[in-house]
Design goal:
Elements (H helix, E strand, L loop, with lengths): L1 E5 L7 E5 L1 H13 L8 E4 L7 H11 L3 E4 L2 H5 L1 H10 L4 E4 L1 H4 L9 E4 L6 H6 L5 E6 L9 E6 L12 E2 L3 E7 L2 E2 L7 E6 L1
Length: 193
């Protein structure tokens, strides 16, 4: 369906070809786990060069929600950004944690963070939002492979996990060819759609 370039952890750019079934699987995740529907108003925040844009387009175009595209000027002005979210009644946004730390958002039903590590404090500061989802995944797995979902009444762990695998994905922690036990460090291996 598309080819996108990433350097991953190597620092050496490489093209990643993503197949249609990966995007179809991402769509199912947004519908079944995040409840995205035609009433939602999705914020388009990510650059076209970043795979988070694929998630934003999937939520809007493929799930029936509307997409609201903000200008670069609004993105750079935190007060204007906060006002945009309220004025246009945005219900779902995907934001990197460093950006989310700079704003105080009202009206969202779901905030999804990704792209870098989130924190207990950031989840706590956004507990007024019904759902905080920490989504994780390398570009190669069609944007995200795992998610941790926090409902605003749940207890917040000190260390925010990357969560559980999306539909039709499997996640293993391995050391060489051996599976690691709970809490044992190892290499993250992802399989599935």
């Amino acid at each position: 369906i598309y080819c996108i370039y990433t350097s991953g952890t190597t620092g050496k750019p490489k093209g990643v070809m993503i197949e249609h079934y990966g995007v179809a699987n991402l769509r199912e995740y947004f519908i079944t786990k995040q409840g995205v529907n035609e009433k939602d108003r999705v914020l388009q925040f990510a650059s076209m060069a970043f795979d988070a844009m694929v998630a934003e387009m999937t939520m809007s175009i493929l799930c029936g929600a509307s997409m609201h595209i903000i200008t670069e000027e609004v993105q750079k002005d935190t007060k204007a950004f906060e006002g945009y979210i309220e004025k246009y009644k945005i219900s779902i946004a995907i934001l990197p944690p460093p950006f989310l730390r700079q704003v105080r958002l009202k009206g969202l039903r779901t905030i999804i963070t990704g792209g870098s590590e989130t924190s207990h404090e950031l989840v706590f500061e956004n507990r007024h939002i019904d759902v905080y989802s920490n989504d994780y995944g390398p570009t190669e797995v069609t944007v995200c492979a795992t998610y941790w979902r926090h409902n605003n009444e749940d207890e917040i762990p000190q260390c925010i996990p990357i969560g559980r695998p999306l539909n039709n994905k499997k996640v293993y922690i391995r050391n060489d060819n051996n599976l690691c036990g709970i809490g044992v460090p190892g290499e993250l291996c992802i399989a599935g759609d």
